[in-house]
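Reviewer 2 asked us to include a model.

Predict the structure of this chain.
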Amino acid sequence: MSAAAGKVVRKKIKETLKIPTSLIDHSVAMKGIAEKHISLQKKNHLDKQYKPSDFKPKFQYINMFGRARWKAPRVSLRKLNDMRKNCEYLDIDPHSIGLPDKPPKKVLRTKPNKGKKHERNAPERKAKIEKALEEMPKTIETWRLEKLKEKEKSKPSLPF
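Predicted model (structure tokens):
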């Protein structure tokens, strides 16, 4: 971009955003206003045709002793994402050069906190207490009958 074109762009940014030109970062790419600089090397990456195997790691046997290792993919994930962004900026379809689809975002696993032991056991304990309270009249009645039976047993059989 030439100096004159840069002044025009800064003027447009200043008018649209209503902020002083000194505060504008000229490297920021704002679609339609400022241009993003893409290096020649990165543009050359977009000219190539890629195979799906270029983005996947490979398992290879190395020598006659049967030693094997994983070989890194030809295009790293970082480079792939840069290429995808550049395609989007230059309005190129990523599928046209053989880039794979974006993987779906994984749902975060929600696991409850461990908590304290008394907090974890509280629902069971409350249920146990409720059950005991419901059966309390029956329990009291059985206890009274047991006490009466013990009292009867402890009494001597002779009246004197």
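The CA atoms of residues 15 and 21 lie 10 Å apart. Residues 8-37 form one domain. We have added this to the supplementary material.
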